[in-house]
Structure prediction request, 150 residues.
Amino acid sequence: MKIKIRKIKKADVERVHELVYELAVYEKEPQQVTNTVEMMLKDGFGKNKIFGCFVAEVDGTIQGISIYYYRYSTWKGKRLYLEDIVVTEAMRGHGLGKLLFDKVIEEAKNTECTGMMWQVLDWNEPAINFYRKNFPTRFDEGWINCHLDF
Prediction:
């Protein structure tokens, strides 16, 4: 099995979108996916690029992704926000998640971030255990996520 972690290319966006949808199904919210391949092409490769992505290829097929962007904390400064990390169900347990996560950490350090942040659903025990086992993760309590949809 040959694994390669690399930055996204335009030709990858359709597959990346499929994995985003796969994550939404896993999280029991597929109806919430309103993003499109066209929007991802514009937002990831357009004039005002707003997200980055690494893909994990196994034998030439994308089996995992990590999507991130930068945010600014008035308390901490520049931070990298990991929006999604997804590994196909068939490839879980083969180390792709760790390789993708390590690559995002490397990106944060290379772009002079003071740290990185992400969210995990409180019922997603496999993900929580992954973060606890592999990284010195701090889990915040007392914060409520707020959203406005337009």
About this structure: The mean pLDDT is 94. The chain has four helices and five strands. The longest strand covers residues 61-73. The helical segments are 13-26, 37-45, 96-110, 125-134.
